[in-house]
């Protein structure tokens, strides 16, 4: 009996990244800081720093601070939507020098050479996409991991509006054996078990980690996520903080009609004044209705990992059932052969 198939998919990505669980923290700008990244990494997942809008010196400081908090692998997410090509290249030079385990890229299709350069420096490269076309481009450029970002996701999205349950199988079909992570609305073990059963190699989680003690989110932001229901997010293509007008994003909308900041999507940091959390439409995914409290990141990782264990148990049971059926088939075949031998003796 061969039971190795039961763990091969998630084993591939954990071995590639040097982590215990295929649970990846989304590299959320300003929110995924050293404390949260280290907490996820120490719990066995892949923590990812949010590099968007960080000046190169600040990015280096965050990476070095993270290294003082964990000796586990972690990653950095870069997005070329701030400061232009020169700033993006300067950020990338810092990453090359500091050498995290993983580079995560989003909206970086105009920089395909960056993937090869990062891999030459010994990094694993993950690219987050929302369409099959973008996945093909990332694969052609040499990406090691593809993340299927369903339209259920919070924060910024690719221009595709494909839900995860349709996008994930489509990307698995074109991945050429590469691990594909699932992202969008994933907050608990049931979500993890569902996408792993579909063939995902792991999960990328954002909103659920905003509502963690170590995240840089403002306490009012965290509480809005806890209080929200599944009905309370909205897909938009208007204004969002620091991004080009029209970039798709998902938020918990502010309904105060006298508040002009309600038209702006954003994420409120702990260092921001309370009015930012009170007035912005805050980034969040459709999984908010399943988040009922703020908890330590290690506890969140543990909860998500329960879905991995449950799926592993299902796979092992399926393997045992297959082996049992194989033995029955072999006995039936042997009996038929004996019967034929007696009949034609």
Q: Which range best describes the helical content: under 10%, 10-25%, 25-40%, 40-55%, 55-70% or over 70%?
A: 40-55%
Instruction: Output mean pLDDT.
Output: 89
Q: Looking at this structure, what is the CATH superfamily?
A: Aldolase class I
- Biggest sheet architecture: 8 strands, parallel
The CATH class is: Alpha Beta
Which residues sit in consecutive blocks of at least 5 with pLDDT less than 50?
1-7, 339-345
CATH architecture: Alpha-Beta Barrel
Number-wise, the strands total: 14
Oligomer: single chain
| Strands ordered across the widest β-sheet | 1-9-8-6-5-4-3-2
Explain the overall architecture.
This protein is α/β, with parallel strands linked by helices and 345 residues long. The chain has a single domain (4-221, 287-317), classed as TIM Barrel (Alpha-Beta Barrel). It has helices at residues 8-17, 34-42, 56-69, 84-98, 113-120, 132-140, 164-174, 189-198, 207-210, 219-227, 274-279, 297-343; strands spanning 23-25, 47-50, 74-78, 102-105, 124-129, 145-149, 155-156, 180-183, 202-205, 234-236, 239-240, 249-252, 264-266, 281-283. The strands form 2 sheets. Strands 1-9-8-6-5-4-3-2 form an 8-stranded parallel sheet. Strands 7, 10, 11, 12, 13 and 14 form a 6-stranded mixed sheet that branches. α11 (274-279) links the parallel β13 and β14. α2 runs parallel beside α3 (56-69), α3 packs parallel to α4 (84-98) and α8 runs parallel beside α12 (297-343). The longest helix has 47 residues, at 297-343. It is globular and about 70 Å long. The model is unreliable at 1-7 and 339-345 (pLDDT under 50).
């Amino acid at each position: 009996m061969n039971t190795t198939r039961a763990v091969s998919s998630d084993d591939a990505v954990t071995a590639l990244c040097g982590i215990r669980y295929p649970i990846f923290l989304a590299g959320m700008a300003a929110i995924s800081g050293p404390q949260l990244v280290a907490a996820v990494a120490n719990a066995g997942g892949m923590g990812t720093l949010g590099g968007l809008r960080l000046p190169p010196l600040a990015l280096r400081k965050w990476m070095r601070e993270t290294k003082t908090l964990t000796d586990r692998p972690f990653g950095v997410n870069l997005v070329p939507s701030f400061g232009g090509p020169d700033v993006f290249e300067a950020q990338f030079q810092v990453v090359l020098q500091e050498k995290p385990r993983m580079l995560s890229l989003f909206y970086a299709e105009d920089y395909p050479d960056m993937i090869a350069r990062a891999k030459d420096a010994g990094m694993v490269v993950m690219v987050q996409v929302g369409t099959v076309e973008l996945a093909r481009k990332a694969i052609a450029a040499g990406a090691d991991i593809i993340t299927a970002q369903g339209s259920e996701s919070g924060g910024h999205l690719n221009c595709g509006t494909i839900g995860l349950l349709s996008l994930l199988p489509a990307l698995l079909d074109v991945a050429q054996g590469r691990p594909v992570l699932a992202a969008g609305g994933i907050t608990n073990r049931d979500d993890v078990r569902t996408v792993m059963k579909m063939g995902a190699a792991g999960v990328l989680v954002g909103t659920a980690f905003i509502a963690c003690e170590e995240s840089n989110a403002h306490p009012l932001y965290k509480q809005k996520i806890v209080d929200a229901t599944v009905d309370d997010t909205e897909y938009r293509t208007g204004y969002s903080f620091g991004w080009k007008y029209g970039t798709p994003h998902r938020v918990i909308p502010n309904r105060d009609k006298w508040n002009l900041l309600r038209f702006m999507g954003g994420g409120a940091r702990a260092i921001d004044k309370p009015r930012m959390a009170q007035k912005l439409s805050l980034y969040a995914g459709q999984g908010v209705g399943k988040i009922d409290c703020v908890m330590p990141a290690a506890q969140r990782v543990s909860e998500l990992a329960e879905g991995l264990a449950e799926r592993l148990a299902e796979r092992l049971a399926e393997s045992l059932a297959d082996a049992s059926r194989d033995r029955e088939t072999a006995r039936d075949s042997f009996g038929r052969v004996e019967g034929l031998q007696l009949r034609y003796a």
